Amino acid sequence: MKLGRIIVLLALFASPLLARAQQDPPRVIGPLVIIGGAEETDGGEILRRFVKLSGGDHARIAVITAALGDPGTTGEKYRKAFKAIGAREANELQTGTREEIDSEANLKIMTHATGVFFTGGDQVRLVDLLRKTNVEKLMHQRRLDGLAIGGTSAGASMMSEFMAATDKGPIMPLAKHDAFRRGLGFLPGTLIDPHFSQRARIGRLLSAVADRPQCLGIGIDADTAIVVTGNEKAEVLGSGAVMIVDASTATHNNKVGRQPGDPIALFGLTVHVLPRGSTFDLKSRRPGDGNTAKNAEPRAD
To answer: In this structure, which CATH number among 3.20.20.140, 3.40.50.880, 3.30.565.10, 1.10.600.10 belongs to the domain 27-289?
Structure first.
């Protein structure tokens, strides 16, 4: 009799929990479309993919021009581009000051958006304006429920854990050339550098990963993007390539004890060059050729 009573009580307590689990599907983190700048805005492949990931003809896209001191017609250009591709709505946030960013109108746009797009400009300005605002907090919260986030140039840089704080950098890796600072961290464990080949930024990226070998260095060419799903899988789109630098495999790094500006020695880095169609697993750090079924062999530990 007692055993029967216990079973009944357990069933009564478990039923609401099971019902809630069935009603609330597991959260799916929203995708990222990270663009190296100068993408085609007239119906190009990259922006079309962003609109699709934001909901296609149901997409409601918020355009953020905070990286620009004077946005001029940039926001309008992207609004028109997204509408022409087929988005239901495209609205530009007013981002002149931190107070303006957290306006009721902006928060309303962000609450209903299915995608958020950051234009180019100055990533330091963008991060300084947005960090710890209610709009930034809302973006991170809503991304846990599928909000898509895209950005080009400065809007790509700020997605990483660490971003370049200046436009220039060394041609070769140098000691204590720390031109990186914290981004908004939509893709943790990364250092993202746009316009990569066009502005010869490999020295800057190598200097950065030498200081932070736990982070993947990701250099993205102009008119090229990585589409990241679940913060784990990346696919390359566009006309250029993506270079991924993994300094965790380095067998020698003599940055310690070197004087600022001295060249540094880096042995045993792992470097991948990924053109359109290539894939990369950010968790296992394995590249793949999206045009074939066979992926590269995993690295040896």
So the answer is: 3.40.50.880
